[in-house]
Amino acid sequence: MASKVLRAVVLGPPGSGKGTVCERIARSFGLQHLSSGQFLRESLGRGGEVGVLAKQYLERGLLVPDHVITRVMMTELEKRRAEHWLLDGFPRTLGQAEALDRICELDLVISLNIPFETLKDRLSARWIHPASGRVYNMEFNPPHVHGIDDLTGEPLVQREDDKPEAVAARLRKYKDAAKPVIELYKSRGILHSFSGTETNKIWPYVYALLSNKIPPLHSEEEN
């Protein structure tokens, strides 16, 4: 493990494979994979002021606003000041990036650039297990039994915003919000962009980049 604490972020639109890339980085380099979606689900489960606030938006099918997500994430990151970590799903807006600046300095930002048609296809084939956040893709990562979560046997659902008619608007919204975040990190010289249609082809380049920052625990081939 490197002596300096490494803080990294993976940016990418819905369906870009952020979660997969983060899991591989966490496994290969020993960074904690901190998912905003996971923290939000845990916050909902615990109740409390922020959890109740988030639930009000989710029950109405609305995006949880910046200030709620930011409070959830700042609380979690404050507990991890001395640890290596990798953020997935945060920051998504300039406001969130500025809040993150107030508590830490990022070393590395990875941006995944995936063609629109690829994203559209992936999202339209995506089904999730709501309680855990587990994601299945009906084309290349289907459940053992159609429509059923492998671990719990509970039914899978397709999010409203993963349905084909909603995907284009969702991707446009992401792009508009992410543009100033990407520009901010680019101006600081910490942004590294990777383009492609397959995570397996992008991964060796991501692995090489991280290897220059922190010693790997596992070789690239083990992933």
UniProtKB/TrEMBL annotation:
Annotated organism of origin: Cairina moschata (Muscovy duck)
Domain of life: Eukaryota
Sequence segments annotated as region (LID): 125-162
Subcellular location: Mitochondrion matrix
Keyword Repeat: no
Function: Involved in maintaining the homeostasis of cellular nucleotides by catalyzing the interconversion of nucleoside phosphates. Efficiently phosphorylates AMP and dAMP using ATP as phosphate donor, but phosphorylates only AMP when using GTP as phosphate donor. Also displays broad nucleoside diphosphate kinase activity.
Gene: AK4
Entry protein name: Adenylate kinase 4, mitochondrial
Binding annotation for a ribonucleoside 5'-triphosphate: 15-20, 126, 135-136, 199
Catalytic activity: AMP + ATP = 2 ADP; CDP + ATP = CTP + ADP; GTP + AMP = GDP + ADP; dADP + GTP = dATP + GDP
Swiss-Prot/TrEMBL domain comment: Consists of three domains, a large central CORE domain and two small peripheral domains, NMPbind and LID, which undergo movements during catalysis. The LID domain closes over the site of phosphoryl transfer upon GTP/ATP binding. Assembling and dissambling the active center during each catalytic cycle provides an effective means to prevent GTP/ATP hydrolysis.
GO cellular component: mitochondrial matrix
Residues that coordinate or bind AMP: 36, 41, 62-64, 89-92, 96, 170
Swiss-Prot/TrEMBL keywords: Acetylation, ATP-binding, GTP-binding, Kinase, Mitochondrion, Nucleotide-binding, Transferase
NCBIfam families, sorted: adk
EC identifiers of the protein: 2.7.4.10, 2.7.4.6
Top class in the EC scheme: transferase
GO biological process: ADP biosynthetic process; AMP metabolic process; ATP metabolic process; GTP metabolic process
Segments for region (NMPbind): 35-64
Pfam families reported for this sequence: ADK (PF00406), ADK_lid (PF05191)
Boundaries of every Adenylate kinase active site lid domain copy: 126-161
UniProt similarity note: Belongs to the adenylate kinase family. AK3 subfamily.
Gene3D superfamilies: P-loop containing nucleotide triphosphate hydrolases
